[in-house]
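Marked as duplicate of an earlier ticket. Keeping the data here for the record.
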Amino acid sequence: AFFCFGFYPQNQNQRVMVTASTTGRRANAPGKVRRRRRCLLLRVHLARGPWACSSQALPLLLSKQPDVVKHINAQDAFWNATKTVRRRAMENKCDRKRTNERARKSNVLVQHDTTLGARGGGDDEDDECDVLIIGGVLGAFVAHAVVTAVPTARVAVVERNESIVGRDQEWNASLDTLTKFLNALGPVHGYDDAITLRDNVTTSRWKCSRAFVEGMSEPLAVTGVMDCGVSPRRLIDAVRDSLVRHGVRIHTGTEATHVHSHRDAAVVQCRAYRRGREKDSGGGGGGGGNHGNIPTQVRARLVVDCTGHFSRFAEESRRLRSKRQPLLPRPPLASEPRGHVVVVGGCLEAPSWPQGNDVADLLACFDTVSQDDIRFGQPLWEAFPADLDVSGTTMPRRTVYMFAYIDDHPDRPSLAEYAGRFVDGLSRYQGVDGHGEEVGVVRFLAGALPCYSDIEGPHVLSEARRVLHVGDASAAHSPLSFGGFGAMIRTLPMLRPRLARLLESDRLDAGSLRRAAGGEYDPALSSSWLFNRSMSLRVGTSAARTGDCVLRTLRLTFTSLKLLQRFGIRKPADFFLADEMRPIPLMQLLLVMGVRQPLLAYSAAARAGMLVFVRWYVHYVCLCAVSVVRLISFTTSEARRDTGGLKSVVA
């Protein structure tokens, strides 16, 4: 159902019903809309119904902005399509298996056991490169890292939008992690070093971040975790201009449709991207692109997929992996996620923020779930200061999100209902009236982001020769986070030197690419699945037993972290709130929780599932083993370096 992304119903009183199809024929019946996807095509039938998203169902804060209504309509149609596929799968498992067999006939990503050979002298050199990046917003960072690490490499970027620009709303990150990421980018033209670039793109900073739950006497405060806001527009503009100076070709308004992987090269078929209307491919494109020169196909030594959560190439790679590992237990659909993170919110502005706008909330929880609201899951909140440097000229801005960890059960609410709950909760959380005329929306986001469990393995790094998935496309992010810039900022420092070595040696098979991207199995990410399940409420459960279980578990967690801080043990709080799983701090936290309230810790594990808990224990043992191996490797390398330096001094 992920290939329905981007569609939204035109009529306000329409609902979405989805049936799987594998043909590319145009639907003759009125009311059917065809998506041009060669792999799992979905025919979306529009029928009148009461549960579609409409501007009347949204609060006044959101319904008065057409762009916000259009965005929620698009995401709601996609979310309803996902739930409809789930409903039909629950009703008829045989039909689900047939859908899986049809999906495997996709030709979006095809691997051939042939060689292309050398190109002729009359071929256009613009259609050949060493590295091709698909997806230019976050892919621009990968392109810049490659072109600075391997100066002789010919790099090209394919972006379906008209330009490569960043959004106005800030990205939030930790200052230390951001510095490592900017160092991994390499020298950016116009800036002396990474510190200068960091100071230019960082628009907001605050001293500490906190986490609190209703019932705590005072919040849990940490420093150095999510303590700055980055301007995407400034950062991407600087990287894009540097790419142009390095001679990187940027094809904007171009969509990559198929990837054919051969032994010696990969061929990517492209076309002009059209969104609802014909696009003139002869005009000039902004944002550093050459919109007037759209190639029909590009030959590259390596193709890097940076197209996000709903990448069609990553979906096909998951199916290829299910064929490569037939003995692993997997869901009937190899590309089916086991959970979702529903996120609503964005950047808001108001005359004043009574709760303060000088500190960030990493996680806040203050609602006990009733029986009528059990289908919404446990609402969690987070907020960050935004654009503090322009607070004197405009109203103060603050980034506020409400999110919940849920599954794709058919009875889950629509995103429009989540948006309504978000506006209703603003008065209690931030002290501003979301239904009044004082609050304005700078940017709004609503979506259901997939997260994969530890069974199918979150990673899908590379299943075909010369094709690598990076960022959200690889799902190499924690099931507790939203991905996006946060996934790229942690991946790129590790990926840059390894990818440079592979390009220089031309070892671009699937196994080498998987090892370069960190391996197919990461115990730190797999162990996060237990915490995702422990904060999720199943549809149909009794609110009398589970209505406040998530709130009480989070209260026990944060008070235990505060207790450790009082004894001078600060690493558990820093790593836990930064979503980094380390064996020793994690064990310290779990031991304190088990000693203080053993029954509550046991109930949280039972709610997630005892099988999930047993698998988590295995992942934790693997995490300890990996940490020991890394420590020994680091100690050995440092000892060799010191010995070599001593020998040189003696000589």
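See parent ticket for discussion. Residues 344 and 446 are 4 Å apart (CA to CA).
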